[in-house]
Amino acid sequence: MVKITKEAALEYHFKDRPGKIEVKPTKPYRTQTDLSLAYSPGVAFPCLEIQNNPDDVYKYTDKGNLVAVISNGTAVLGLGDIGAMSGKPVMEGKGLLFKIYGGVDVFDIEVNEKDPVKFCEAVEKIAPTFGGINLEDIKAPECFYIENRLKQTLDIPVMHDDQHGTAIISAAGLLNALEVAGKKIREAKIVVNGAGAAAISCTKLYCSLGAKHENIVMLDSRGVIYKGRENVNEQKAEFATSRTDIHTLEEAVKGADVFVGLSKGNVLSQDMVRSMADHPIVFALANPVPEISYEDAMAARPDVLMSTGRSDYPNQINNVIGFPYIFRGALDVHARAINEEMKLAAVKAIAQLAKMPIPEIVNEVYHVSDLQFGPKYFIPKPVDPRLITEVSAAVAKAAIESGVARTPITDWEAYKERLRQMLGQETKFTRTLHATAAMHPQRVVFAEGGHPTMMKAAVKALQEGICSPILLGNPDRLTRLANRLKLDLSGVEIIDMRADKEQGRRATYAKHLSEKRARQGYTFEEAYDKMYERNYFGMSMVEQGDADAFITGLYTKYSNTIKVAKEVVGINPAYNTFATMHILNTKKGIYYIADTLINRHPNDSVLYDVARLAAHSVSFFNDEPVMAMISYSNFGTDEVGSPVTVHQAVERLQKDYPDMAVDGEMQVSFALNKELRDDKYPFTRLKGKDVNTLVFPNMSSANSCYMLLKGLDPDVEVIGPIQMGLNKPIHFTDFEASVQDVVNITAVAAIDAYVEKLKNNKGE
Ligand SMILES: NC(=O)C1=CN([C@@H]2O[C@H](COP(=O)(O)OP(=O)(O)OC[C@H]3O[C@@H](n4cnc5c(N)ncnc54)[C@H](OP(=O)(O)O)[C@@H]3O)[C@@H](O)[C@H]2O)C=CC1
Ligand SMILES: CC(=O)C(=O)O
Ligand SMILES: [Mg+2]
């Protein structure tokens, strides 16, 4: 686990530019017209619309996506009353989390006011700006008055996160931890250390989920809160115990099933944990220093079910698992409030999610492969991409059903898709790709069945209905790997191409290959030998119709795979070469780049074929190809070297395909800017058209181009390589491909195979 040092934390905050957030325009602003629309005079029109119909503020401004994180700095984490301005890094941090996890914009607002009435007045005055108010790090008991009053006076969701965010997450964690421990909430003996904002609200929620008042002991800085104790406010009094035999934490935790700490660091000792019941549940949630460290608790009791509020230990219970999604759901229905129904819906959704199989991204982030519901994992990780769809949708639904939504949602699938797209988890492009493949799932052979990425991708593709996977490899080895990765291989076929029982199949494939390549010196014996090799065997399966498509490349070099592909399935007779294309899904749109991997130094004939293949493949993806043949010169400005080769290819293409939208040679800047191109070169065949396909003059420029874009902008989604021009759906991945990359290529391969079948049925 990475230890966080003071130096690293300070550097993180001051490096590059101070702080963690910025404000960014969302509309064009480059021209005078843009500015006149954004500001005076254009801006007056939406102002007047809002004056006429106040709900239009959601239509014309960011109000519906803007939350104020407001604090007076009186209970900043567990640091106490450090003042409004000192709490600003925490509030900015919340802004960052709101944005990355929920897509919610935040203004952090630090109000220098401890008087609850004056504080409320300040918030009420600025409330029109916001779609929601997240109160943060305001101490008890003032926080109770403040939240209650603002809920009454404001018609937007108001939530004190330390109270309810914490309550929701810890309640979900508690329900699951009790399940792991085999205990029931109504029988659980619960000690709550702390009696402030978070503690009171958490305990109330545990009670509404079944915990019994008589089983609860609460402590504040002065010890156990018992009936009749002096100086106990009304919130604490609700949980005062009738027991008279206990006064200290040490006495209270003896035999307890659950300890929930929302107080101060280092107040729970190892001996106290040792004195608890079997499988004790310890939620040491004080930040940044928990009531007991993870290491100390584990050392004291190996059977402990342990949580802290920190991200660097297992089972983080932190309100970050809730607030981005609770507000997301509330904002999306323009809710008037966040009510009990919405909170309970969030508890259920979070608890449920921890019991579902873990998405690959979570394993990747935490460098683990074996997370599953149990002592080390009973609460979803904050990076779990399903939180946004599951929790936000549950909250929005509860808002509608409980009557606080202004704008209902009816199409829940479309809503979830929008959320996924908003966070860039899934683009429309890949979603369409997967959905198209899932309409006609094909049999796909995965050559490197023993590679963890390949195996995970095969299982994921099966789960998404994209294909029936066939893994090549030794069944015992693959089963051991699957067990280690906690993958369920039911529905996945395993073929051991080296096993005795595959002798017949090896012979059939070898006979076919040796006959096909007889004139290239192939003998049956040599071909038979090759069939022990996964690429020969797998491609032969496709060639012979025993499978529909083939994926390889995680272990094998392209040059080798290409050689085998040419021998076994051959090049489509309509072309003299084959090539690959990468698809770049960028903020500006989808771009297709060719040839990224196969032809190192193409002459004009090869470029001619690459362009034809690209045109065909772009149509395959349902896009109309508009192709720029790229070079460093424009339309003959350079008369030697590669521009001439490109020029010649363009001439042939334009002659042979009078309707093809192709032109060049041209520089990338003219390809991507039609105004510039049309202005300077009005004669081009691409006049008025947006280029979506770039055919590069050689492999190094195409390859560097897609890698450069991918490297510079992590938001650019890259799909590929897409193989073009082989006789059969044989597809390759990169060495460094992720599970998602392989699943994307599998979808392409499956669609490719289906299209091929349709063509064959039509006799084309
Ligand atoms: N993991 C998470 O998601 C979250 C964690 N927290 C953490 O919970 C803690 C409390 O936050 P919050 O409720 O907002 O703050 P408050 O100031 O409202 O409450 C603090 C409470 O802790 C009590 N306390 C202080 N020292 C002790 C002690 N030695 N033994 C028992 N109780 C003690 C105080 O007692 P008294 O009433 O006598 O002053 C008070 O009741 C903080 O450490 C915070 O970081 C908070 C929210 C979310
Ligand atoms: C997590 C949080 O809100 C706190 O510790 O105050
Ligand atoms: Mg807080």
From TrEMBL:
Its EC number is 1.1.1.40. Residues 18-151 form the Malic enzyme N-terminal domain. It holds the Pfam family malic. Its cofactor is Mg(2+); Mn(2+). Keywords: Metal-binding, Multifunctional enzyme, Oxidoreductase. The keyword Metal-binding applies. This is NADP-dependent malic enzyme. It comes from Hallella faecis.
